């Protein structure tokens, strides 16, 4: 399983099959009343953004997708039962949203009405024709304002088939997508074989509407006296009351965005990743600590930043029985530490490790509590609303299904709209450590990001090879001298 750009998904030709709700199920869902409990803050913000873009006539790209290849002839009835039982297990996938005046409200279909049927959508004769077809499906079906909020289908051919699942971000995140694929394949295999699904599929799991209630309660508990909230605000103030931004100038004016240009490359192979991990642990941290330290060194050497200041994307599943649940279980917290206080990577790792641990502690504060506190403190609404520069790290070695052929062939991707950021996704599996980013597609951004990514790659490779990396005492240094020093 890897995260990659959607354009890299190119299934072989075959018959296109789509699973959609039956007319009766759709009618019952459309008539479902609003629930009293509110959606999460991220869901509300997301739905408002979707509705605003819809009014402007803009395309919907805020979805995630996952796909893999399955050996054997497709059993349509078995896959229909697998999809139905999957939706039954996850309460959040039984919901959709609407605007009720200024409020965003949730609707839920009666679970007894959940029912899907197969539609034949013709034949995929050329791989190149698939992109337009699948974008149309995801943009129109994987939305938050009508049940089911996802598009599910297959490309059938003799002896094998492609399975895919695209879901609106309001109902999913990266980890949920990986779990969804593993669960759907597991349920399908059990239906075909007449066997029991794995414990990961059959175990009881919490529903996302319950998580939303928990999150709202946590937000209300974090008042002005909350030490975590006070620390969050202090970090923000210490950095000019601004959100984290990319270290180099990407050439975009405030508020300006550009079409996304995906960037992805390998950082280390298996042996290199293991070596880098060992250096991080020997220095008193973990691999994620080393990633932050390498980013900090790159920021310091290219932009003269004496302190690392970034935003971490962290999962929030541990507030209940949500380890295997479907939903948007994410929170965000700043990571800060002084790069200039260390003379080497090994000295910097403990500082990065402490910064990461602090971010995990601060992530206990729901994002809506942070935003309200920032605004109450006098922070600029424009700055608070700005999308920060973020880092996400996923270790794909620990998900259900790892090692299976379908898992190893899996692809995870997101929609591609516009961005002003160059946020990073650094991930690990049994084969490599690799980098991904959705970047602004402008000449200046291309040039600066190429310089940054090349330098980051060199830093991480040098650490894996040499076991350390000397941090220069000056600020912005000559890249040629750095390269020469670490190649000698």
UniProtKB/TrEMBL annotation:
GO terms for biological process: lipid biosynthetic process. Residues 57-371 form the Condensation domain. InterPro entries: CAT-like_dom_sf, Condensation_dom. GO terms for molecular function: catalytic activity. Pfam families: Condensation. It comes from the Bacteria. This is Peptide synthase. It comes from Antrihabitans stalagmiti.
